[in-house]
Q: What sequence folds into this?
């Protein structure tokens, strides 16, 4: 069983790392999220670079994610809930 | 500088009725137009030390309190608040005219002054350090603010934190106004500080009985002096609870402050930048208490730790 996610195409984020998470401002949706550090690290691992501000022109990234554990699923759901990734 | 306490009743009344009255609070000048005696008496009680003008002049906001209609003036005795001729609220009984003015002014600032990030938070200052007390209504925020003000802490606001600039020059901007107290808090502050001066009581409002504690004169005099935010406090009064002081991470503090913001969504990325600067520059703490003395001691200790 697998699900395929992609970055939301219009994503442009302002990011502030804090000791208890990463504050993320979604410029397109005008929403703010506090992302758990592990979830953020996972999100960044999906990206070709690790910029402070992720510009939308980084392009769509498709991650083919096997659901190989509860923690990974929970991380995907957290990112999906924040609107940073979406199911294809 | 002319202060309201130096103005005769006749001149004050005439100026209010003619629309020439200006009340200066911190960085803002208000044009106040009213023929409602209850408002005039309320302003007299809680704004005596504020600079005023009686002959017009520049203003930032055009506020009025008038009878809702000719019929209501005599029959229901209701009054209505307006900003630039628009009435955002339903009419209220004339006895609540002063409370309506204070609520209307909060709404005016919160919905208009977008050069600042505005959070629903009391702000006080001690030893040059700004302390924000952020909490939802009913948490005891205003009571604690009143206690601190009566103990000599400088009052910036009991309702609106105005945040200007960016790190490392982030500043809290004073807007010293009367502290709104509800129900038992009124008697509590009266008992603890018999010298405290209040405006008129507004009974049977949606929040119960309301009274406004006059801001200390020293806070009014220093309304142009900003202060850097040094502590963010999330106070919570709980009957019988022992004192509990717990750190709150910057990320969680930022998210809690967003919940208490007036104009964060309006400011977009600028609001995020300013809020993140705030959360990262001022440590945040949650304080649960049942004793005002314990809460004040805890705040003193936290400020002293910040000094060290």
A:
């Amino acid at each position: 069983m697998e699900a395929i996610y992609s970055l939301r195409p219009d994503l442009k984020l302002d990011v502030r790392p804090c000791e208890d998470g990463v504050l993320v401002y979604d410029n397109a949706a005008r929403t703010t999220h506090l992302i758990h550090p592990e979830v953020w690290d996972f999100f960044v691992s999906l990206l070709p670079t690790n910029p402070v501000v992720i510009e939308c022109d980084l392009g769509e990234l498709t991650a083919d994610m096997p659901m190989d554990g509860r923690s990974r699923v929970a991380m995907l759901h957290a990112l999906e809930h924040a609107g940073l990734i979406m199911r294809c | 500088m002319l202060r309201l306490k130096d103005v005769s009743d006749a001149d004050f009344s005439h100026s209010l009725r003619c629309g020439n009255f200006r009340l200066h609070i911190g960085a803002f000048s208000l044009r106040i137009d009213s023929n409602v005696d209850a408002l005039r008496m309320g302003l007299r009680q809680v704004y005596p030390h504020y600079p005023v003008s009686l002959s017009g002049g520049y203003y930032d906001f055009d506020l009025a309190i008038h009878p809702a209609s000719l019929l209501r003036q005599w029959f229901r005795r209701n009054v209505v608040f307006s900003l630039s001729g628009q009435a955002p609220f339903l009419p209220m009984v004339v006895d609540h005219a002063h409370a309506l003015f204070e609520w209307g002014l909060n709404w005016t600032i919160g919905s208009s002054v977008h050069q600042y990030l505005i959070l629903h938070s009391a702000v006080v200052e001690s030893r040059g350090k700004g302390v924000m007390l952020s909490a939802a209504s009913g948490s005891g925020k205003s009571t604690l603010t009143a206690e601190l003000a009566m103990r000599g802490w400088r009052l910036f606001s009991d309702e609106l934190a105005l945040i200007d600039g960016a790190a490392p020059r982030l500043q809290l901007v004073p807007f010293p106004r009367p502290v709104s107290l509800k129900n038992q808090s009124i008697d509590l502050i009266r008992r603890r500080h018999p010298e405290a001066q209040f405006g008129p009581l507004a009974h049977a409002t949606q929040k119960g009985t309301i009274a406004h504690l006059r801001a200390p004169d020293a806070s009014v005099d220093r309304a142009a002096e900003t202060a850097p935010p040094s502590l963010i406090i999330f106070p919570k009064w709980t009957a019988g609870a022992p004192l509990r002081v717990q750190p709150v991470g910057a990320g969680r503090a930022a998210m809690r402050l967003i919940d208490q913001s007036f104009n964060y969504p309006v400011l977009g990325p600028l609001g995020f930048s300013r809020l993140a600067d705030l959360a990262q520059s001022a440590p945040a703490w949650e304080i649960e208490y049942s004793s005002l003395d314990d809460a004040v001691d805890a705040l003193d200790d936290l400020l002293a730790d910040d000094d060290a």
Q: What stands out?
A: The longest helix of chain B spans residues 97-112. The CA atoms of residues 119 and 259 of chain B lie 9 Å apart. The mean pLDDT of chain B is 94.
